[in-house]
Amino acid sequence: MARNEDEGKTPRQQRKEREKRIMDCIQLKPTDRVPIISSMGYFPAKYAGIPCSAAYYDYDAWYAAYQKALKDFRPDIIFVQPFQPGKAMEMLKPKTMRWPGYGVDPYQGHQAIEIDNMKGDEYDLYMNDPSDYMFRTFMSRAGDDMEGLALLPPLSDLGGGPFGIQMLARAMAEPRVFKAFRALQKAGREMKKWDSRIARFDKMVSDMGFPEYFQGAAMPPFDVLSHSMRGMQGTMTDMFRRPDKLMEACEFILRQTLERPLPPPSENGYTRIFMTNTRGSDDFLSMKQFQTFYWPTFKKLVMGLIEQGNFPCIFFEGNFTSRLEYLLEFPKGSMLARFDTTDIFRAKDVLKDHICIEGNVPSSLLQVGTVQQVKDHCKKLIDYCGKGGGYILAPRSSTDAVKPENLKAMIEFTKEYGKY
């Protein structure tokens, strides 16, 4: 049993110590022990014996469940599943998500549904006027009641005089337009009711000594298109039918992303930017496709964020083993690379003394293994990947269904054994 590192320390002191440990590791500086980052997700529901749907429909139960879990499981940084007002979300009838209690069993996690919200012949429409396109075209396809948004006049046609107001007024008289705005208004009012409680949830996490996981987020341009806009099937088709337009759109999204205002730093002055790298894995793109469509704008995005003073924290979903050497092109000690099914031992061999790596205790081991098997695997990771620093231990992916005793063993064993 690891001693209580937090005994006698204020929440502010705990947050500062934990964040410093993580940031020193990312910057390849010496640390007292191997840091631990762990997603909590829907795990508190299992631990407290409540349905996952409480995260959307029962604020008090979700608050209490997270408070209980964070008291008993104390890694350095956690990734939470915050409370979201399910009734308001139902009013919007989104096509791209189902959650516990709405299209998904109350005891299971949420699901993302990929649709082609953007058509193959709409690249120029999007790039010529992205605000108008996203509002009138893209959003009109995002929810069952949103189709009326497509009937609005182009935003750039409204002008500043009385005729613009008349155009807008006429559009609002159309029943489908009114239906869309009514749904948005009802959902917005419902969401406003929960703002103070959601802020209270965030304060509880902070008051328990946990720093924010990240201050902002960004997505690789190719992933923005293939996840949220064209969908995987549409994007894969475009690589063959309209490759130049696909690459042009990736460059356009890159510029938009880097032009956004920077988020405020953490209370200790750090700015971590969360990012996932999904479609860049070995599982989706050949090496030639990766080099052509993915890497150029992904590299520019990461470099741009670093040059702005941020620390990208990138989750390389799937298998990135054959592409590890590419990460050596980023400045030393400038980012965090979290790995899923990538061979993390090879990652250590390739990236040691250059990039901090994070991972990758299998979720399956935490779900069905024994406490001793978990400890043995963590020891193997610490002995190899933790040698010389620059390593953060973490689960491979979801912890929603793990055994509580296994999650506790992973955290406490690492705190005790992972000391330098």
**Helix coverage percent of residues?**
40-55%
Number of strands: 11
**How much of the polypeptide forms β-strand, as a percent range?**
5-15%
CATH C-level: Alpha Beta
Named CATH architecture: Alpha-Beta Barrel
How many helices does DSSP assign? 17
Q: End-to-end distance, in Å?
A: 18 Å
Category by helix and strand content:
alpha/beta
- What are the segments in which pLDDT stays under 50 over at least 5 consecutive residues? none
Largest sheet: 6 strands, parallel
Strand order of the largest sheet: 6-7-8-9-10-11
Q: How many domain modules?
A: 1
Rg, rounded, reads: 23 Å
- What global shape is seen? globular
Kindly state the mean pLDDT as a whole number? 95
CATH topology: TIM Barrel
Your description of this structure?
This protein is 49% helix and 11% strand. Strand 9, helix 14 and strand 10 (356-361) form a beta-alpha-beta unit. It has 17 helices and 11 strands. The protein starts with 10 loop residues before the first helix and ends with a helix. It is globular. Helix 5 (86-92) runs antiparallel to helix 9. The relative contact order is 0.13. The protein has 420 residues and is an alpha/beta fold. The protein has a single domain, classed as TIM Barrel (Alpha-Beta Barrel). The strands form 3 sheets. Strands 6-7-8-9-10-11 form a 6-stranded parallel beta sheet, with helices on both faces.
